[in-house]
Design a protein that fits this description.
alpha+beta; Jelly Rolls; 4-stranded antiparallel sheet; 3 helices; DNA-binding transcription factor activity; Env_Response_Regulators; RmlC-like_jellyroll
């Protein structure tokens, strides 16, 4: 089984991790704190060091649905890389969280200045988006598809 592509640092070229970490600062969130809200503008992202974060989607007429739980090493936030830079999922600290926080505009500038690093970041973030989309799809099918409807083609 192939590991889920949720770790940003593992995909970076030599020296890329160190260059990216130049833009990091420590951040923390207590359990229960909303970190992001679906539809709001994003100007930062995080790599989780400790704790866990739930990702959720708003469903009209229902409570938000948790579609994935993130933990150590996972990237929290990908909407910072793609215009219009708005959150596609909400996020809440499930437990106390310590993370590395990155200024999105500065990281986008780094990506523009260093094409190799920029491509590596963009490809890994795209892999993470695809993974999260599949998780969200599976979760929503689990919750809302008619029982016994079978897998989709």
């Amino acid at each position: 089984m192939i590991a889920a592509p949720t770790n940003l640092f593992s995909a970076l070229p030599p020296g890329g991790r160190e260059r990216l970490l130049e833009f990091a600062r420590e951040a923390s969130f207590p359990a229960g704190e909303r970190i992001s809200e679906e539809g709001r503008r994003t100007d930062r992202f995080w790599v989780i060091r400790t704790g866990s974060v739930t990702l959720d989607m708003r469903i009209p007429g229902r409570r938000p649905v948790v579609v994935e739980t993130l933990s150590h090493g996972d990237l929290l936030g990908w909407s910072w890389l793609f215009p219009p830079y708005t959150w596609h999922l909400g996020a809440e600290a499930l437990s106390p969280v310590r993370a590395l926080e990155f200024d999105a505009a500065k990281v986008r500038e780094l990506c523009e200045a260093d094409a190799v690093l920029g491509r590596a970041i963009a490809v890994r973030v795209a892999e993470i988006v695809a993974h999260r989309l599949q998780n969200a799809r599976t979760r929503l099918l689990d919750l809302y598809a008619p029982y016994g409807s079978g897998p989709l083609p």
